[in-house]
C-alpha cells in the first residue's frame, strides 16, 4: 500500500497513470493455491480456465511467493500465460533456473554468506555444540548443508537436527517430540532457519513447555516472536537475529501512524487486522469488544503485532513494487499502445511483454540503494538484532552487531557484546560445549564414535594449571591440584631396597652354590660320573655359571659409566661360555657313541682339545660382537624423565638396540643348537649320557628368555632392570639344577653308584 501510494504521487514515474492492486489469500496447500490463482485469472465468478470474466482492473504481474513452495505452486499455472511473478521470499537457487522458471524473478539477495556469519558468531562466543532446527524444504536443506560444512571447518559440532514439516503445523505429537529432544540436549544454542510458516509450530503450539532458556539464533524475528498471551514464549528473550540490512525508507513510519480502516473501508484485511490487534470491533453489536477508537494508531502496537521499522521482507516487497512500476514506465515509453493499456483492454497482452523490461530493469530506491532485478550474484549483508522482552509484555529489537560479506576477513564481523541482553538465567555469555574445555595441564582425548567436540580430558605429563601453557621443568612434576611443581625423586634399583637386596642375595647364594658344586667335582675328579662327558667342560661350565650369577650384580646400584659398559658385555660373554660349553658337551656325547664303531673317524674329536676349541671359537665370536658394540655405540648412563611422571629413572642406555639384541640373538642361536643336538641324542644308552638333562636344562633356559623379551619391552625403569636380573638368575639356576644337581646327588649321597664296577653291572643305571 505504501509503495503504490508513493508511486502514484510521483509525477516522474508513470505520469498520468494510477497503479492499483488486488490482494489474494495464500494457502499452504497446492490445491487451494491453484484455486486462488484461477480466481485471480478468471475473476470472482466461476473459475473457468482460459477465460477471464473481469472486464476491468486486470493485473499483469504477481508479487508474491513468501515461500518457495508457494512460488512453485503459482508459477506452474502463471507460466502458461507468461505472467511475471516477482517473489519477495528468501532467495532460492532452485527458482533462479531460467529453464524451469522463466517467469519468476527473485528480489531477495543470496543468503550464501549467512552460514559464515552464524558460525563467526558461534566462534566469537565459543559455542561449539549447537542444535539445528529447519523447515523441511530444499532451500533449508541447502542452508543446513552449507552451515554444517562451515561448522566442520571451524570445529563446531551439531548436537541435533530437527526438521519441521509445513503440513504438521497442528501436529502436537511432533512438537512434543521436538521439545523432548530439546530438553535432553546439552546444547545451549539453537539455530532456527527456513519456512516461517512451518516454524509457526514453535510459536503457536498449545502445549505449555519450558524451553530452558536457550540461546536462539535465527534469520527472521517472526520465527521467534511470541503470540500475545503466551507467557512461556518469554524463553526466546535474548535471541540473536540475522536480519538483512536495509536502509530506512522515508515516510514509512508516518504512513503507519496515519493508516486507519476508516479511511479505506473497502480494505477488509486492514479491518480484520485492526480488530484483532486492538481487541475491538468496527461497529456496535458486532462482537463482545468495544468499538475501535478513531484515534488508534499502529505505532502503539507491540512487536508481536507489527514492527514499525521496515523489516527485510517488507523492504523486498517495497522494491518489488517499484521494480514493476519502473518496468511499466520503460514499456510505456517505447510502446505506442499506452492509451489502450490505460483503458485496460489489452492488459493480458502486456503481461508477457513486461518480461524483457523486468530482466534489464535497474533503479535507485528512495533509501538510496541501487536495485538490479536481474542481478542474482549479490550477497546479503546482515544486522545482528537482539530480541528483548519485558515484564509488561512488550518487546524490542536492538541492533548489537553486523556482518558485511564484502569486508576483508577479520573486519566482516562486528559484535557489541556489552549491548547484548542474554536469556533468562544466563546473565552472561555461557559456553555451549559437548564437554568442558580441558584445563591447562590436561589434553584432549577423543571419544570413539563421537564428534570431535565430545572428548575426555587426560592429564598432560608435567603441566600445571595455575598458568596457561606453563610446563614444569623436566626434573619436576605437578602436584595433584596441578598448582605447584614438585621436584622429581631419583630412582634406580639399589641394594638397600627389598627387591635389590633379594636379587643380590639370590645372586650371591647361587654363585656360592655353584662354587661348592665345582669344589665337589674337583674333589671327585677321578670318579666315573665326573670324568664322563669331558670334566674340563664341566669345570668351564661351572665357572661360567658362577660368574653369570655374579654379573647380575652389575645391574644393581647407581648406573655409572663403568658398570654400564660391563653389565651387558659381561653377561653376554659369560652366557656364551656357558651355552657353548653345553653345546660342546652334547656334541661330545654324540661323538663318543659314534667313536665306538670300528673305523670311526670321530675318535680324534672326542678328546679335550676339540670341545674346548669349540668353546673358544664360539666365545670369540661373541667377544667380537661386544667389541664392535663398545666401539661404535657403547652403553652409557642416562636419566629417563618421561616414563614415570614423579621420578627420574637412572638407567643405562644400551646405545645400540641392534647390538644388544644381536648379543642376545647369538646366545639364543647357541642355545637352540644345544637343545637340538641334545634332543637328537636323548635315546642313546644312559651310562655316560647326560643328553636328557641337557635337553631339559635348555628347555628351561629357552622358556625363561622367550618370556623375557615381551616382559622387558613392556616395563620401564628399575623394573626393566629387575626383569633382566631375574632372567639371568633363573636361567643360570635352571642350567645348574638340571645338569649338575643330579650328579651331585649321586656323588654325595649314593657313592656306591659312582664306580666302574656298578656302571658295568648296570648299563641302564
Automatic annotation (TrEMBL):
InterPro entries: ANF_lig-bd_rcpt, ATPase_P-typ_TM_dom_sf, GPCR_3, GPCR_3_9-Cys_dom, GPCR_3_9-Cys_sf, GPCR_3_C, GPCR_3_Ca_sens_rcpt-rel, GPCR_3_CS. Residues 499-763 form the G-protein coupled receptors family 3 profile domain. GO terms for molecular function: G protein-coupled receptor activity. The keyword Transmembrane helix applies. SUPFAM superfamilies: Calcium ATPase, transmembrane domain M, Periplasmic binding protein-like I. It is a multi-pass membrane protein. One of its GO terms (cellular component) is plasma membrane. Keywords: Cell membrane, G-protein coupled receptor, Glycoprotein, Membrane, Receptor, Signal, Transducer, Transmembrane, Transmembrane helix. Its main location: membrane. It is found in: Cell membrane. This is Vomeronasal 2 receptor 607. It comes from Monodelphis domestica.
